[in-house]
Design a protein that fits this description.
Largest sheet: 6 strands, mixed
CATH class of the largest domain: Alpha Beta
Number of domains: 3
Distance between the termini: 55 Å
Structural class: alpha+beta
Number of strands: 22
CATH superfamily of the largest domain: HUPs
Strand content: 15-25%
Number of helices: 15
CATH topology of the largest domain: Rossmann fold
Shape: elongated
Length: 459
């Protein structure tokens, strides 16, 4: 390390980084580290400082993701290999295959692909390091505010977060971009500049090129002060998570939540608990309007109505006084044609019924709180796929509804609708997978034996 580098503003260098890593990773340097290496100035600074440490981390390697979005992307990959080789660090390259659908954000697709490939490349016990720095944090907070984010969004990027069965570490969040660039220049290292950064149609680029120069000219310490605000928001979010964890624990019945326990909470705590419950299941958060439906109309509906709220990738349905959260497979290739034949199910002999592809498997479980009255079922049931024109009464005393209308209201993907097994008792449709029950078989206060249908989708 040069004398100029030791005098660098902010004190960045191998010694500074080693001290930072010891604070964030108790086992450092006896850890294995993988650096997400783009070849830009920030990640070059991170990788070079790690390589210059004495003692060096137990194992250090780099991983470059080639998104294939620029004609020069293969040259960037070759540059990353050259720099890593000069630093005596192994460097792997993974290539992303991005397929942009109409209306999809290219930034979001590239980010998702990058982290998916990095996660797949991590070895057990290995820590992933990214070179996000203080100015990146400022940009992230401002973008989150402009998108109407809550406390979690304003907390922006955490320094340490679980990732791909291990840990993702951002040790440079307190270091300004100018300090990293100055250090890399002082070390006579080269880096690549992404031409796409000049595309001002992308929100982050516009913010960086047009907004932040004016902002920091008026408030030079903006990045540092906003980073402190993000840290305060992260602390607040941890407190909200702790409160939500306690509320969810009190409301939990297995994997479901008891509606009375949720109704006893204030509206704010109720939404906080639901957010925590959904996030803990590793499902995409619903839009605010959908979350409000779950916290409001779904909880206040009649116990026998089985209301459902769905959003991309997930759904919440109320069965009697329980809220059940389910994953919904994303739309993919056209499903196999549903079978035309019927399947007889003598449920008293076998509580599980394996169905022809692609209908999956139905299981009837005894459940003292289940929504199904077992004594209302005939001994022999029939299961088949949709053929059109099916109707059922989902609310006692209500009208018979067309299944087509129910599916449209639930916003289920067409690919999923084709896979739904329908259960008949004679000529009467009594159940649609584990989504709806006909009023004739719904449990009530006088039901002696209750149960629950569980549908396992075909893979």
């Amino acid at each position: 390390m040069t004398r100029a580098a030791r005098r660098m503003p902010g004190g960045f260098g191998p010694r500074w980084l080693a001290t930072r890593l010891k604070a964030l990773l108790p086992d450092f340097p006896q850890v294995r580290l993988c650096v997400a290496f783009s070849g830009g100035a920030d990640s070059t600074a991170l990788l070079a400082a790690l390589a210059a440490m004495r003692p060096r981390p137990q194992q250090l390697r780099a991983m470059h993701i080639d998104h294939g979005l620029q004609p020069s992307s293969r040259h960037w990959a070759a540059h990353c290999r050259r720099v890593a080789r000069a630093l005596r660090v192994a460097c792997g390259v993974r290539r992303a295959a991005l397929k942009r659908s109409k209306g999809a954000s290219l930034e979001a697709l590239a980010r998702e692909a990058r982290y998916r490939l990095l996660g797949a490349a991590l070895q057990p016990g290995e820590v992933l390091l990214t070179a996000h720095q203080q100015d990146d944090q400022l940009e992230t907070v401002l973008l989150q505010l402009l998108r109407g984010a809550g406390v979690a969004g304003m907390a922006a990027m955490p320094q340490v977060t679980p990732f791909a069965g291990g840990v993702l570490l951002r040790p440079l969040l307190n270091v300004p971009r100018r300090v990293l660039h100055a250090w890399v220049s002082a070390q006579h290292l080269t880096w690549v500049e992404d031409d796409s950064n000049l595309n001002l149609h992308l929100d982050r680029n516009y913010l960086r090129a047009r907004v932040l120069p004016a902002l920091t000219a008026r408030w030079p310490a903006a990045a540092a002060t906003v980073a402190r605000s993000a840290a305060h928001a992260a602390t607040a979010q941890r407190l909200l998570d702790a409160l939500a964890a306690a509320d969810v624990a009190r409301a939990q019945v297995g994997a479901a939540l008891a509606a009375p326990a949720l109704r006893a909470l204030s509206p704010e705590r109720r939404r906080n608990a639901l957010r925590y419950w959904i996030t803990a299941a590793k499902l995409l958060m619903p839009p605010s309007a959908r979350l409000d439906e779950i916290a409001g109309p779904l909880l206040s509906a009649r116990a026998d109505s089985q209301p459902l709220v769905a959003w991309p990738g997930a759904r919440v349905q109320r069965h009697s006084e329980l809220l059940v959260l389910s994953h919904v497979a994303a739309a993919g290739p056209a499903p196999r044609a549903p079978p035309r034949r019927d399947t007889a199910w003598h449920w008293r002999d076998s509580r599980s019924c394996v169905l022809p592809a692609p209908l999956g498997r139905l299981t009837l479980r005894a459940d003292a709180r289940g929504p199904l009255d077992l004594d209302a079922l005939g001994a022999a049931l029939t299961v088949r796929a949709r053929r059109g024109g099916e109707r059922l009464r989902v609310r006692r005393g209500g009208p018979r509804r067309a299944l087509k209308s129910l599916l449209q209201e639930a916003r289920l993907a067409p690919q999923l609708r084709a896979r739904l097994p329908l259960v008949f008792d004679g000529a009467r449709l009594i159940a649609v997978a584990d989504l709806w029950l006909d009023a004739a078989v719904q449990a009530h206060a006088g039901s002696a034996r209750r149960g629950r249908l569980v549908w396992r989708r075909a893979q």
